[in-house]
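Possible regression after last week's pipeline update?

I re-ran a chain I had predicted before the update to compare outputs. Posting the input and the new output here so someone can diff against the archived version. Not blocking, just want to make sure nothing changed silently.
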Amino acid sequence: MTTTATATKQFMTSDQLLEDWQGHRNLTRRVIESFPEKELFEFSVGGMRPFAKLATELISIAGPALKGIVEGNMEAYSEEAFNPKTKEEILNKWDEETEVINQYFGQITEERFQETFNLFGQYEFPVYQNILYFIDNEIHHRGQGYVYLRALNIEPPFFWERF
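New output (post-update):
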């Protein structure tokens, strides 16, 4: 019996994953910008949270979680730590967290992506799955933002224009 080894090719590099994620973040930022100030903080559909609360959740997870992964810190995240009152505050914090993501993502080695990490002391998955969760969660909430904008008769940004 003969066995043949098959070389596996990498689907994407960590740099490509970060670029993809930052494309999503760029688009979500444009969704935030699309909201009128009042509606950003007050408008909701079907009992869902206003988009400012959704954006605050995203801000409170991604950067702090990557920092936690790099530093081995499993403390729970806190949405209450950031309590914006204006769209400008949200956008400024969004930009700050984008830099935090860039800083800490670059410190995760290819090998670490496969390591299990107990994110926030709650979710024990490989690092790459945690990062995909951050991206999936953002896409999910951005979709809610699209529904809100459409309900407000505001044309949302094209979902394919991420950069």
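Follow-up from reviewer: compared with the archived run. The chain has a mean pLDDT of 90. Marking as no regression found.
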